[in-house]
């Protein structure tokens, strides 16, 4: 851990700064999304007289910690690459605010704590799924980012597992409904990942990341692939209603959101610009939580 001016700050400031950097290491926005998706799957899969809020809370906390462990491992493995990119060079590891040894211990503690909570408060199947998600993200997706766009497929699997493990936590089993909510989040990953890769292309090239399809080109072919995956979200968004998981109102919301999201891809096909990709990236940020909240409200 390196704090060049540590002699000039108080112990309180030092502790607060160190705690803040540990929290940043967990990528809280991403990990909160994982926790929310897990809770979403649990509520959607739950059937009975009343939701067990203690299980729901510890499922969310466990999912947050396991996700935090996975992204910490990711940052340890990519520390030298993060130093090369503008968007990541100021993170706690590249700047030396947290050492690799400290981050490793932190990843082990958060991972074990998260898996332990899931094992105690949910079931073995949920815990195994979470462990699989951690391994896929840290040790399959992370190294594949420098190999090619196959990394997006590999990364979409752990990215789509949170709602599935939430469902499994509620039911202790798999069902077609569980795979439907997994499928929606799985397909959503492709326009989401590729829009980010398009926007951050120059930075990604510095690190050797090859996430865009079509040979890494920001062209019409890549835009068409983004459009196709976004198009699939429209019929997929109707499946929860068709299978009786939710009602007709959420189907309406999912369809409207899907059409709006799809319209952004046509703009990208026309312009093939960073600005158009940025709109899709923010559109992806909005699409998933809005649709999932609509499913929840329709279920409750």
Question: Which structural traits does this protein have?
Answer:
mainly alpha; 300 residues
Description of the structure:
With 300 residues, the chain is an all-alpha fold. It is 78% helix and 0% strand. It contains 13 helices and no strands. It is globular and about 60 Å long. 44% of the residues are buried.
Residue windows where pLDDT falls under 50 for at least 5 positions: none
Tally of DSSP helical segments: 13
Gap from first CA to last CA: 47 Å
Order of helices and strands: HHHHHHHHHHHHH
Task: Detail the topology: elements first, then pairings.
Elements: H1 11-25, H2 28-45, H3 53-77, H4 79-82, H5 100-121, H6 124-144, H7 150-171, H8 176-199, H9 201-207, H10 213-216, H11 220-242, H12 248-271, H13 274-299
């Amino acid at each position: 851990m390196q704090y060049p001016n540590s002699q000039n700050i108080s112990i309180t400031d030092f502790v607060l700064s160190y705690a803040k950097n540990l929290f940043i290491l967990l990528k809280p926005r991403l990990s909160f999304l994982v926790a929310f998706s897990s809770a979403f799957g649990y509520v959607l899969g739950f059937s009975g007289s009343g939701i067990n809020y203690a299980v729901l809370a510890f499922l969310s906390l466990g999912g947050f910690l396991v996700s935090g462990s996975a992204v910490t491992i990711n940052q340890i493995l990519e520390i030298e690459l993060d130093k090369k990119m503008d968007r990541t060079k100021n993170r706690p590891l590249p700047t030396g605010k947290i050492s690799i040894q400290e981050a490793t211990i932190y990843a082990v503690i958060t991972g074990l704590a998260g898996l332990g909570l899931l094992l105690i408060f949910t079931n073995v199947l949920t815990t195994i799924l979470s462990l699989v998600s951690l391994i896929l993200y840290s040790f399959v997706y992370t190294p594949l980012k420098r190999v090619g766009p196959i990394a997006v497929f590999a990364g979409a699997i752990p990215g789509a597992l949170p709602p599935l493990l939430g469902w499994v936590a509620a039911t202790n089993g798999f069902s077609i409904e569980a795979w439907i909510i997994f499928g929606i989040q799985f397909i959503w990953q492709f326009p989401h990942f590729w829009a980010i890769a398009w926007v951050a292309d120059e930075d990604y090239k510095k690190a050797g990341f090859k996430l865009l399809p079509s040979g890494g080109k920001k062209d019409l072919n890549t835009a068409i692939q983004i459009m196709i995956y976004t198009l699939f979200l429209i019929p997929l968004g109707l499946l929860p209603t068709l299978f009786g998981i939710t009602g007709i109102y959420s189907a309406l919301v999912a369809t409207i959101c899907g059409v709006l999201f799809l319209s952004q891809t046509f703009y990208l096909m026309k312009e093939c610009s960073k600005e158009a990709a940025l709109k899709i990236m923010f559109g992806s940020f909005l699409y998933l939580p809005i649709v999932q909240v609509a499913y929840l409200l329709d279920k409750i």
